[in-house]
UniProtKB/TrEMBL annotation:
<dbReference type="GO" id="GO:0030245">
    <property type="term" value="P:cellulose catabolic process"/>
</dbReference>
<feature type="signal peptide">
    <location>
        <begin position="1"/>
        <end position="36"/>
    </location>
</feature>
<dbReference type="GO" id="GO:0008810">
    <property type="term" value="F:cellulase activity"/>
</dbReference>
<keyword id="KW-0326">Glycosidase</keyword>
<comment type="similarity">
    <text>Belongs to the glycosyl hydrolase 9 (cellulase E) family.</text>
</comment>
<dbReference type="InterPro" id="IPR001701">
    <property type="entry name" value="Glyco_hydro_9"/>
</dbReference>
<keyword id="KW-0732">Signal</keyword>
<keyword id="KW-0378">Hydrolase</keyword>
<keyword id="KW-0136">Cellulose degradation</keyword>
<protein>
    <recommendedName>
        <fullName>Endoglucanase</fullName>
        <ecNumber>3.2.1.4</ecNumber>
    </recommendedName>
</protein>
<keyword id="KW-0624">Polysaccharide degradation</keyword>
<feature type="active site">
    <location>
        <position position="425"/>
    </location>
</feature>
<feature type="domain" description="Glycoside hydrolase family 9">
    <location>
        <begin position="39"/>
        <end position="498"/>
    </location>
</feature>
<dbReference type="Pfam" id="PF00759">
    <property type="entry name" value="Glyco_hydro_9"/>
</dbReference>
<dbReference type="InterPro" id="IPR018221">
    <property type="entry name" value="Glyco_hydro_9_His_AS"/>
</dbReference>
<keyword id="KW-0119">Carbohydrate metabolism</keyword>
<dbReference type="InterPro" id="IPR012341">
    <property type="entry name" value="6hp_glycosidase-like_sf"/>
</dbReference>
Length: 519
């Protein structure tokens, strides 16, 4: 749906104060209908999604009732308890790297917008979503230099179309250790350090525990450097890390600095800035694989603090790369390095699961806009200075596109609004709920009877952000169109904080309008 346009201007000035008052109330009422997006609803739904993706034993307060317990023997074969954590997308593999990125982004959202999430009544749910991941990471880190990085494997998993509750595929677990190092040893410290900040006040003991794991894992990751997919062969065709481990190590160190204030982590970010590509690689995506833009933005924010003055030289270089990223998303670079957009205005990086880049960008833009506002500064792009409001407005336009202001009139956040994808590429959602029908559904039976159906999925996977439209805004709501209809946990995660921020802004505006109206 299109955003409703402002109503026409009020008629010429009235003569009596009463009429003036009445008219101003009417005018104000018309202004407040400008936004037709219910951010509070979007926020609630985005957090529900993480309950759909839960693996393990579900708790008594599980709200997504079409799901049941699953993966209860994960790790058994290897003698470790790996029950829990999240399924990554529409399949049942538990991939450590994207799961950790999901938790990092949820935590960052709470760190930036925890007050807004709390005001909207969703803080408990946000903390639960984070803890479901971090509880699992604690289990998976079984020794100082041992991390179980994956359960299940994509190849056997993809032969089957089954509910997680029926799973018969391999649940083999894969670890990284001194002999087989890997990237998750950089992302998990980031996730656990960020989560330790989130739980500092409400659960100090847990926060401490997370920090301890984060520090130990970081040391391991730094000492035994290596690419994840080099060690865990089975991950190669699914989550091969193109950018390698260096961005994760810088990113992990940055989060550890934020969590501990210990200079050794900041020095790591500074000393390795050049050799690890932190200030050399101008890149226009931020994802489970490539962390540079997020790192660069965090580094830029350090510049305003007096105590970081002696690192000014390197931090400025981080900022210059951060600005390159932000300006290219805003279409404000002049050297052909802007991010493409669809005719409908959506940022377009690539065909497969493009929405993941849109949601991470919306988050980084929102955070940077807040930073500029609080530091009374501007973003400096090739084509000129950009103020915080313009940046936020663009982030908002991407959110509006996601929620339905687009050529398909479709919300890509499932369950939001009146029109959304109904054939999401998701095993559990596309098969009758286990709670309703416990009859076993086999591997190929699922393909025959459920995957190949024309009908909409029997279960609505509320809050999932699907891969989204192609480069000309077209979207085909078909189950086998996994590039567009599959959703991933890291697609929705960055939106949680953004929805809360937009909700609070609108509430503030509503509040000031009713103040004017009643004056
Ligand atoms: C565009 O400019 C930025 C910032 O000066 C630079 O980092 C980037 O490499 C340039 N890109 C191209 C394609 O020239
Ligand atoms: C979307 O809505 C607009 C305005 O109501 C309408 O003109 C357009 O045809 C719709 N597009 C689709 C694909 O339904
Ligand atoms: C702001 O006011 C509009 C119109 O009354 C309402 O629909 C919307 O829910 C309000 N938004 C918030 C965040 O309170």
């Amino acid at each position: 749906m299109e955003e409703k346009k402002k109503k026409q201007n009020p008629p010429p000035p009235p003569t009596t104060p009463l009429l003036l008052l009445l008219l101003s109330i009417l005018f104000i009422a018309s202004l407040s209908t400008v936004s037709s997006f219910d951010y509070a609803d979007a926020l609630t739904k985005s957090l529900l999604y993480f309950e759909s993706q839960r693996s393990g034993r579900l708790p008594y307060n599980q709200r997504v009732t079409w799901r049941d317990h699953s993966g209860l023997t994960d790790g058994l074969e290897q003698g470790v308890d790996l029950v829990g954590g999240y399924y990554d997308a529409g399949d049942h593999v538990k991939f450590g790297l994207p799961m950790a990125f999901t938790v990092t982004m949820l935590s960052w959202g709470v760190i930036e917008y925890g007050d807004q999430i709390a005001d909207a009544g969703e803080l408990e749910h946000a903390l639960e979503a984070i803890k479901w991941g971090t509880d699992y990471f604690i289990k998976a880190h079984t020794g100082p230099n041992v991390l179980w990085a994956e359960v299940g494997d994509g190849d056997t998993d993809h032969y089957c179309w089954q509910r997680p509750e029926d799973m018969t595929t391999s649940r083999h677990a894969y670890k990284i250790d001194e002999k087989n190092p890997g990237v998750p040893a950089g992302e998990l410290p980031a996730a656990m350090a960020a989560a330790s900040i989130v739980f500092r006040r409400t659960n100090p003991h847990y926060s401490h525990l997370l920090l301890h794991h984060a520090q130990q894992l970081f040391e391991f990751g730094d000492k035994y450097r290596g690419k994840y997919d080099g060690s865990v062969e089975v991950v190669k065709s699914y989550y091969a890390s193109v950018s390698g481990y260096m961005d994760e190590l810088l990113w992990g160190a940055m989060w550890l600095y934020k969590a501990t204030d210990n200079d050794k982590y900041l020095n790591y970010v500074i000393d390795n800035a050049h050799s690890f590509g932190g200030i050399g690689w101008a890149i226009t995506e931020f994802s489970w694989d490539v962390k540079y833009a997020g790192l660069q933005i965090m580094a830029s924010k350090l510049l305003i603090e007096e105590k970081h003055k002696h690192h000014r030289h390197i931090l400025e270089q981080y900022r210059s790369k951060a600005e390159h990223y932000l300006c290219s998303c805003l279409n404000k670079n002049n050297n052909n390095s802007n991010v493409d957009r669809t005719p409908g205005g959506l940022l377009y990086i690539r065909q497969w699961n493009n929405m993941q880049y849109v949601s991470t960008t919306a988050f980084l833009l929102t955070v940077y806009s807040d930073f500029l506002r609080s530091s009374d500064d501007h973003l400096h792009c090739h084509v000129g200075a950009v103020d915080h409001q313009e940046i936020l407005n663009f982030a908002k336009s991407q959110v509006h596109y996601i929620l339905g202001s687009n050529p398909m009139n479709m919300s890509y956040l499932v369950g939001y609004g009146s029109k959304y994808p109904t054939r999401v590429h998701h095993r559990g959602a596309s098969i009758v709920s286990y709670r309703e029908n416990k009859g076993f559904i086999g591997c190929t039976q699922g393909y025959d009877n459920w995957f190949n159906r024309e009908d909409p999925n029997p279960n609505v996977i509320v809050g999932a952000l699907v891969g989204g439209p192609d480069r000309v805004d077209n979207f085909m709501d078909q189950r086998d169109n996994y590039m567009q209809t599959e959703a991933c946990t890291y697609n929705t995660a960055p939106l949680v904080g953004v929805f809360a921020k937009l909700w609070q802004l609108e509430e503030e505006q509503n509040g000031s309008k009713s103040l004017i109206a009643s004056s």
